[in-house]
Amino acid sequence: MKIFIIAGEASGDKLGAAMMKGFEQHISHKLEFIGVGGALMEEIGLKSLFPMEEISLMGISEILSQYRHLKKRIRQTASVVLDEKPDVLITIDLPEFSFRVADLVKQTYDIPTAHYVAPTVWAWRPGRARKIAKYIDHVLALFPFEPPLMQDAGMSCDFVGHPVVQDLIATPQEVSEFKSHFGLNSGPILVCLPGSRRSEIKRLTPIFQNSLAKVKDSYPDMNIVLPATPSVAELVQSEVRQWTHKPIVLDPREFNLDQAGKFKRASFKAADVALAASGTVSLELAINQTPMVVAYDMNWISRQIIGRMLQVDSVNLVNLVSDTRTVPEYIGEACQPDAIASAICDVLKNPTAQFQSMQSTVDRLKAPFSTPGSCAAKSVLDFLKNR
Fold it and tell me: Do the Cβ atoms of 282 and 162 come closer than 8 Å?
């Protein structure tokens, strides 16, 4: 069986690798994986056409600035799909790239297509679902409320569970070792999470800095911990160099891979509160039962366009999945230091309001059976069988 699979970000690489393992569990005969992916997918046998990072773009202005190169890679990828004629084309998230490839392919040849991570039509541009149905046949959803939206637009869709519920959680011993290593023996701990993309970090760290400076006025013994990913660690170090209250930066370049992972997990579990950019990180905090405040801003053009299209009153995934609004969020124009700092102080005084919402979120995101990767692979195989 030949499977063409496309991922363009670290999260997609993780999803893709888990699904590839799932295919190996369900299929006894030879499997061939080709497409685009990262190190995790390549370890399992993917032959990547080019480095995954070339197509990892976010935001309207960033996509426009790289449009020519992105378009070249879209054409190249679609051409290889048509040459290889796989049994299925699976795209993972990254709609700006994935859907354009699938569209070009479908215009020429009816290769079965599946998309992993349902587009957020519940949040903005609901009309996208019917447009997508022209070139996507089947969808693998991470959230239980998504299948009906996809099915109404003409695609088959299964909820396969969210992989975050399988993430490792730091043990009490690991938390103790983390605190001891960094001298965090007194005062509350705040984990600061300004995103994983360079554009996010540059935009959010000044806002987060000013917010946390105000929090320190009320909590002078506050310890600030900022985990960084390898690709942006140098940028993070540069951005926080001028902070008045310097955070402890968890720079993975300073530790071996195993230790870096343990320290990051321990920082989430040890934290009394988190200040986080909007996104999947809120679910990582939820599995650790870490109360949070969410803040996010974007460039002016993206803010104006997306702001007018937004269909929901919350963009925080804990609020949406649990159907509550216990997590304070400050998005776009509301992303202001005074308001953010006030919310952090309120959460520190009364964190219990979020605990039930976080637990409800985790319960609702569990896979229907086995693991999300196994469910995703089984869903694709059932789709191909029924087709």
Answer: no
Q: Which residues contact 301 (CB under 8 A, 6 or more apart)?
A: 60, 61
Cβ–Cβ under 8 Å, residues 208 and 214: no
Instruction: Give pTM, 2 decimals.
Output: 0.84
- Alpha-carbon span 188 to 222, nearest angstrom: 5
Helix (H, G, I), strand (E, B) or coil at 212: helix
State the sign of the Cα–Cα–Cα–Cα dihedral 359, 364, 365, 369.
Answer: positive
Average pLDDT per 10 consecutive residues for the chain, totaling 387 residues: 94 95 93 95 94 70 66 95 97 93 97 95 76 97 95 97 93 97 94 90 95 96 95 92 94 93 97 93 96 87 61 81 95 95 97 94 95 97 95
Structure tokens at 348: 């520190």
Phi, psi of 353 (to 5 degrees): -60, -30
Q: What is the C-alpha to C-alpha distance for residues 22 and 114, in angstroms, rounded to an integer? A: 15
Alpha carbons 43 and 280: distance in angstroms, whole number = 24
Q: What is the pairing mode between strands 223-227 and 248-250?
A: parallel
Tokens 């409320």 map to which residue? 145
Return all residues near 25 (Cβ < 8 A) that are at least 6 apart. 374, 377
